[in-house]
């Protein structure tokens, strides 16, 4: 048996969709598990909508999540002549024919089908008519001569045997009247020329597969194995589309979902291995198989993605987390200055506490990153006369200590609680607002220790707090 080869074939007409990412992931993992190759084919024949920026984004997105293709990208638009040659060969061998139906005739057929509430199927008018009957003023399309009798069986590696009556497959167009090939012809020729052994894609392609299998058989080519994976639905159970929120990788990257966490989530979205939930990259490759793919659609659940991301934030090496956080800030916030980086690094253990995303870590640690505290106006109202006294008293005592630690801070805080006849919140909350600008955030001891002594004194001396 030839070496396993799979492919992912997106169209560069928009940002890469999350469903496409999972399809690419399953293809890539299957190839790696089988010691095969994984290829990227850019299906850019829609000249009006295909853009280089989308192609770059697709490649960048796949790389971000850890998927790298073997060899160069295969660019479909450079192979058009090969597709046209195959169409002409099918015509010559009697497996295709020229159809001279006018646009009006086709529209009339579609209208009648709508009225009868039937799906439109071309009536095969030109299937057996002689060329001599052809009208002179109409440029023909070329249609594939589909089988009419019997049934076809697709031995699907996920869905099992799928049988269809051949009469239900129309004589589909393979070359338009402007001479350009259609999807089913181009995809089949490309897959054959790329020596693909396994076509793993969404189950919305099943009818295309029956059409493509007929082209393979007509050309006497080796038919590859097919596996159709159920689509991803929204939490409400509708088909996920590019118009849905959080449907592209950029949507996740922007809020600080980490690539390993999202890859792990997508792996488990419709695939299982025993009762294992967390997979390293190596384990994903080692255990992935087509038998573990379920037959029902999966629901994209944002709360599960956040939960998976939180697990990674808590459990990955802190140096790796720090590196990812710095990259995230550079991309979506602003580059962190080197003196602030050291403070963030030392404080990461508590900044990541309760954080589900890198954005949460940013929000928790923003007070370290900024030079000037920006106050939440509602929280600033908490700095009443009593709170101002607490801040002033604390600053006086704090300036006398030499070493910053919980042990040196605790006696000061306890003394203030007593002298101001209040509780821990009565002291901690004004200090948190004064140092971070908000009543929400890390513990007050952590905040003070994470800022150096001079910075704490400077912030507590802010005119708004006096």
Secondary structure layout plus pairing:
Layout lengths: L4 E4 L9 H16 L3 E6 L9 H13 L9 E2 L4 H13 L3 E4 L3 H13 L25 E4 L6 E6 L3 E6 L7 E3 L7 H11 L4 E5 L3 H13 L6 E5 L2 E2 L15 H7 L3 H10 L12 H7 L10 E2 L2 H14 L2 H15 L5 H14 L6 H12 L7 H4 L4 H14 L7 H14 L4 H13 L7 H7 L2 H8 L6
Parallel strand pairs: 1-2, 2-3, 9-10, 11-12
Antiparallel strand pairs: 4-5, 5-8, 6-7
Fill in the keyword field for this structure.
elongated, 19 helices, single chain, mainly alpha, 3-stranded parallel β-sheet, 12 strands, 466 residues, 3-stranded antiparallel β-sheet
Question: What does this protein look like?
Answer:
With 466 residues, this protein is mainly alpha-helical. The protein contains 19 helices and 12 strands. The protein has helices at residues 18-33, 52-64, 80-92, 103-115, 183-193, 206-218, 249-255, 259-268, 281-287, 302-315, 318-332, 338-351, 358-369, 377-380, 385-398, 406-419, 424-436, 444-450, 453-460, and strands at 5-8, 37-42, 74-75, 96-99, 141-144, 151-156, 160-165, 173-175, 198-202, 225-229, 232-233, 298-299. Strands 1-2-3 form a 3-stranded parallel sheet, with helices on one face. Strands 4-5-8 form a 3-stranded antiparallel sheet. A two-stranded antiparallel sheet has the order 6-7. A hairpin with a 3-residue loop joins strand 6 (151-156) and strand 7. The longest helix has 16 residues, at 18-33.
């Amino acid at each position: 048996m030839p070496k396993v080869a799979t492919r992912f074939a997106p169209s560069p007409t928009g940002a890469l969709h999350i469903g496409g990412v999972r399809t690419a992931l399953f293809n890539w993992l299957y190839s790696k598990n089988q010691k095969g190759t994984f290829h990227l084919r850019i299906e850019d024949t829609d000249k009006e909508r295909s853009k280089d920026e989308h192609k770059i984004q697709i490649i960048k997105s796949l790389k971000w999540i850890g998927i790298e293709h073997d060899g160069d990208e295969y660019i479909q638009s450079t192979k058009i002549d090969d597709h046209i040659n195959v169409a002409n060969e099918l015509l010559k061998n009697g497996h295709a024919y020229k159809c001279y139906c006018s646009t009006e005739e086709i529209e009339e057929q579609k209208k009648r089908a709508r009225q009868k509430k039937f799906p439109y199927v071309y009536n095969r008018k030109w299937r057996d008519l002689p060329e001599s009957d052809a009208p002179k003023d109409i440029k023909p399309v070329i249609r594939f001569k589909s089988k009419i009798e019997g049934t076809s069986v697709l031995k699907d590696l996920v869905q099992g045997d799928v049988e269809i009556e051949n009469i239900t497959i129309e004589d589909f167009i393979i070359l338009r009247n402007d001479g350009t090939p259609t999807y089913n012809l181009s995809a089949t020729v490309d897959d054959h020329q790329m020596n693909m052994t396994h076509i793993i894609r969404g189950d919305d392609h099943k009818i295309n597969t029956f059409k493509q299998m007929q082209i393979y058989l007509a050309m006497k080519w080796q038919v590859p194995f097919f596996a159709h994976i159920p689509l991803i639905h929204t939490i409400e159970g509708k088909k996920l589309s590019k118009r849905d929120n959080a449907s592209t990788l950029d949507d996740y990257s922007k809020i600080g979902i980490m690539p390993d966490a999202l890859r792990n989530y997508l792996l488990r979205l419709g695939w299982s291995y025993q009762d294992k939930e967390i997979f390293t990259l190596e384990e994903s490759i080692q255990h992935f198989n087509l038998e573990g793919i379920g037959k029902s659609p999966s629901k994209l659940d944002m709360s599960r993605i956040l939960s998976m991301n939180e697990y990674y934030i808590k459990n990955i090496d802190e140096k790796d987390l720090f590196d990812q956080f710095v990259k995230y800030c550079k991309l979506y916030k602003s580059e962190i200055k080197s003196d602030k980086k050291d403070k963030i690094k030392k404080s990461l253990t508590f900044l990541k506490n309760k954080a589900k995303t890198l954005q949460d870590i940013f929000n928790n640690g923003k007070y370290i990153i900024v030079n000037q505290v920006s106050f939440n106006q509602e929280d600033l109202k908490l700095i009443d006369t009593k709170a101002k006294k607490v801040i002033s008293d604390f600053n006086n005592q704090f300036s006398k200590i030499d070493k910053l630690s919980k042990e040196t801070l605790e006696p000061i805080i306890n003394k203030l609680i007593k002298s101001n006849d209040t509780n821990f919140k009565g002291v901690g909350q004004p200090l948190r607002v004064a140092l971070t600008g908000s009543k929400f955030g890390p513990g007050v001891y952590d905040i003070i220790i994470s800022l150096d002594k001079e910075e704490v004194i400077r912030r507590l001396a802010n005119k708004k707090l006096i």
